[in-house]
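Consider the subject:
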Amino acid sequence: ARALERLATSRSIAMTLSGEGDPLRVEGLQVGRGFFETLGLNAAPGRGFGDADYAPGAPPAVVLGRALWLDRLAGDPRVEGTTILLDGRLHTIVGVLQGTVEGQGVQPQFLIADPLPDGLRDNFTPFLAAIGLPLLPTTAEHLARALFKWARSAWPELASVAVWMRVYELRKLL
């Protein structure tokens, strides 16, 4: 039985923003497909990530957090299509996050498209948050089983390693 209507992934990342002004260490999230839709997020000006942002060889795209946009770019409404330098690599700004990303442990200063599973395989930090919109009614135990099954199908190499999962009800975290 299907337990989730939608599912998206994210993981924390810190990068150095350089270029104009002093270099600044910024905290953000690498997000998988469907992140904006799953959490009901919008980007304006601009847009959230689309399929093209996750395609192999796609130019790096970034959605700025509102605070970073205001502080570093003076809230310029023409920011879409411009670039910023994160860890020495140019990223094209595709939008500015409207609203907040609750329950992620960090209010991100930026979001970057993470074409998992390659990002997970190459990362030294094996932590990944999965955010799902459950089909109601369901239990945390049922959701945990569904997430475990999804993870094993997405990354077959997990069959040979220990996997630890914890399911939180987001409403209880807010």
